[in-house]
Amino acid sequence: MEQQSKQPITYRFPAGFWWGSATSATQMEGAANEGGKGKNIWDHWYEKEPHRFFNGVGPSTTSDFYHRYKEDIALMKEIGHNSFRFSISWSRLIPKGIGEVNPEAVRFYNAVIDELLASGIEPFVNLYHFDMPLALQNIGGWENREVVDAYARYASICFELFGDRVKKWFTHNEPIVPVEGGYLYDFHYPNIVDFRRAVQVAYHTVIAHAKAVAAFRKAAIQGGQIGIILNLTPSYPRSQHPADVKAAHIADLLFNRSFLDPAVKGEYPQDLIELLDEHGFLPVTEAGDRELIKENTIDLLGINYYQPRRVKAKEHLPNPDAPFLPERFFDYYAMPGRKMNPYRGWEIYEKGIYDILINIKENYGNIECFISENGMGVEGEDRFRNENGMIDDDYRIAFIREHLKWVHRAVEEGVNVKGYHLWTFMDNWSWTNAYKNRYGLVAVDLDNGLKRTIKKSGYWFKTVAENNGF
Ligand code: BG6
């Protein structure tokens, strides 16, 4: 491995570039029923319908970071991390979502933050990663404005408890995903298919975000920055035919700009408002919302990128009696010859990461940003274990390297991109896919007491981080 670091550096990144990885509470902490944690929607859904999770594996143990965080942080240090994003579990910190703060959770998150800092790794903390406390889902989750206020209170408590040491904060990870999963496409609890309710959930998430930003400004954390993490899946039209271009524009409005514009520009795109209005789906709003969004834009944008979204104009008239879904406006387009990750079923299109960054530079004031997730989930990685027990994941190294080349080009072209975080540090639990696809730089052996082993990509990533390039 060492000889790689002696190779000449072709792609050098700016000094201080953030190298690290990202994860979320539900996906790695485990201890779901320990330490005073309340239930969240994942604990509940798994209890109700375990068969909907790959191999029937639920969120109770996951990677057991709750107990092994010291060992794990030591490994992060070993593979060159200078930063690491995790999320706080709302239902661990405040078991009912509102009400009492759980002192055991405060101790745990303090210990994690202190251990990271002592290891020279900057903690990036996200407040919400798909994990609504069950008590709040039971009163409607994001559909209920009381939950929005409960979230703003939770955010303030986090700033107060941890803001002396945590300087990079994020309100939500991929807020469109709970809308899609929970209210459109049935892959998250509460498994509702209803466009109107989906729009309301998305809108309230934006209000919750803006209230958290307002709370952050009030907390006046010295040297602190607040942002949001968005999966800015770029929409590519099949062709330049106006109908295809329009289809891609609508997909972009619904899935990307519904969060990007309010978060960065402080207002919704006029085209989106008109589209929703035309079809009678404008959300219920309150006086003062517009100003709240306008006044509380972000400092720092996290960009998650996995795959492009290719669309074309609709080829058949939609069934007017079927539920109204975004696919009223476009069909998905499987581009012939596209490169695929067959395990996850996602196209690999490296240039997409550059297209997003250029869009942010040209249309979003070149706001400070970073790649907050990018990665490749692969099934059956054990077959790549070599005689020393290490997983030779050359495909992952190639995946990262080819994306980083485009990030580098964006840097050269003046994009204000400050770092690259891989999804993820160690193999973790991927929602209904459970442990099907592995994403980590570090393998977690489920059949061997969750033993951690650095993969070849972990050692490669270390040389990249240490050389600040490759
Ligand atoms: C992102 C999420 O969408 O992608 C993660 O922020 C998720 O929570 C990751 O695990 C990989 O996707 P998946 O569905 O394969 O787990």
List keywords for this structure.
single chain; 470 residues; alpha/beta; TIM Barrel; eight-stranded parallel β-barrel; three-stranded mixed beta sheet; 16 helices; globular; disordered N terminus; binds 6-O-phosphono-beta-D-glucopyranose
Quick summary of this structure?
This protein is of the alpha/beta class and 470 residues long. 40% of the residues lie in helices and 15% in strands.
SSE diagram, text form:
Elements (H helix, E strand, L loop, with lengths): L1 H5 L11 E5 L2 H4 L12 H8 L16 H14 L4 E5 L2 H4 L9 H16 L3 E5 L7 H4 L7 H18 L5 E6 L2 H8 L11 H25 L5 E7 L3 E3 L4 H24 L4 H9 L10 H7 L4 E5 L4 E4 L18 E2 L7 E2 L4 E2 L3 H13 L5 E5 L4 E2 L14 H19 L4 E6 L14 E2 L3 E4 L5 E4 L1 H12 L3
Parallel strand pairs: 1-2, 1-14, 2-3, 3-4, 4-5, 5-7, 6-8, 7-12, 12-14
Antiparallel strand pairs: 8-9, 10-11, 13-15, 16-17
This protein binds 6-O-phosphono-beta-D-glucopyranose.
The site of 6-O-phosphono-beta-D-glucopyranose (BG6) has 15 residues, from loops.
GO molecular function: hydrolase activity, acting on glycosyl bonds
Family: Belongs to the glycosyl hydrolase 1 family.
Protein name: Glycoside hydrolase family 1 protein
